[in-house]
Specification:
Blueprint: H1 10-33, H2 35-61, H3 65-68, H4 71-75, H5 79-100, H6 103-107, H7 114-137, E1 140-143, E2 149-152, H8 154-168, E3 177-178, E4 185-186, H9 192-209, H10 214-231, H11 237-254, H12 257-260, H13 272-300, H14 314-320
Helix pairs in contact: 1-2, 1-10, 1-11, 2-5, 2-11, 5-7, 5-11, 7-8, 7-9, 8-9, 8-13, 9-10, 9-13, 10-11
């Protein structure tokens, strides 16, 4: 098994997983369907949380007992969590600017490459974290700032390389559209080829570097946007992903006890041999995805990053049919 889902708490772990999966899908729908929902979720709430975080750290520096014992201060100390939260939130705001055509920037052609840029940044944040783990714990273990035992080794290197390849699997950088209903930013060229490669890579990252959180942020969080894309929001995967990621990061940052020390807490088996197998699967998937993209581009005689390479495929045509 990949996770320690057995024993007296197994039923709570499965209930927790189902709740997270369903709540993320529901929260994504509320945020994407109306401008008000998006503004509240990705402008107002993050602003309030920023004040909250600054207050906690300022009070902790002054020795305030309540701040020193605050769950966010004690359990969510890694640079990665804050980098991911604000990078994902920046993506959500940029995506709303594109789909609602806010200001001159939302209407400009050059800004259509923003989704590629922000996704690449998010991927690189995780890649750096994987390489950090490799360096700190090569051939053994190291303890993160949050007290989690992590293994460092080739599995981190393989998955870091998979993440870099995954960046080049994003095609048609300027092929960004608003949906007819103005509820989605669409990237039609981001088909199942990229989505599957990304999901395998990102799951592996969480499995390598977030073994106490991967049950939720590696499975439920990845499946929620993927299910939405495949069944009712074709072409909107990247928006689904950014929205659910930002919402999850906000929740996890304020309520770390859900994952870290409750009946819902679920650990991976945290075995370097298992990590290695998962990392190799992610690497192979991304090599195959990039190879397929390059073959399609060569046959069409196009640049796969400046032009849309998946035109004519079922996924692309279903997504582009939704575009305004």
């Amino acid at each position: 098994m990949l996770f320690q889902v057995y024993g007296d708490t197994a039923v709570y772990q499965w209930i927790g997983w189902i709740l997270v999966f369903c709540c993320l899908i529901g929260a994504n729908e509320l945020a994407r369907r109306t401008k008000t929902g998006g503004v509240i979720a990705f402008l107002i709430v993050p602003a309030i949380l920023t004040v909250y975080f600054i207050t906690i750290y300022t009070a902790a520096a002054m020795g305030a007992e309540w701040a020193l014992n605050n769950p966010t201060y004690v359990h969510m100390t890694s640079w990665f969590h804050y980098a991911k939260l604000y990078a994902a939130t920046a993506g959500c705001i940029g995506f709303m600017a594109l789909k609602y055509k806010w200001g001159s920037i939302g209407k400009s052609h050059w800004f259509k490459c923003f989704p590629f840029v922000i996704v690449a940044i998010n991927i690189l944040i995780a890649v750096v974290s994987d390489f950090e783990s490799a360096i700190r714990g090569w051939g053994g273990t190291w303890i993160s700032t949050e007290g989690v035992t992590l293994y460092g080794g080739w599995h981190n290197v393989f998955n870091g390389v998979a993440g870099i390849l995954n960046i080049f699997c994003m095609t048609g950088w300027f092929g960004i559209y608003a949906s007819k209903k103005k509820d989605d930013m669409l990237w039609p060229d981001m088909t199942w080829v990229f989505i599957v490669a990304y999901d395998l890579w990102n799951f592996c990252y969480t499995y390598n570097c977030l073994p106490t959180h991967s049950w939720y942020c590696g499975l439920a969080l990845l499946l929620a946007p993927t299910v939405a894309n495949f069944f009712w929001n074709k072409g909107g995967w990247i928006q689904n992903r950014a929205f659910t990621l930002a919402i999850w990061c906000m929740f996890a940052q304020v309520f770390p006890m859900f994952q870290d020390y409750s009946v819902f807490s679920t650990q991976s088996v945290n075995n370097p041999n298992v990590n290695l197998v998962v990392s190799l699967i992610a690497l192979v998937a991304n090599v195959l995805a990039l190879g397929y993209i390059l073959i399609r581009a060569k046959k069409q005689g196009i640049n796969p990053w400046m032009q849309e390479v998946f035109k004519g495929t079922k996924d692309f045509e279903q997504a582009i049919a939704r575009a305004a």
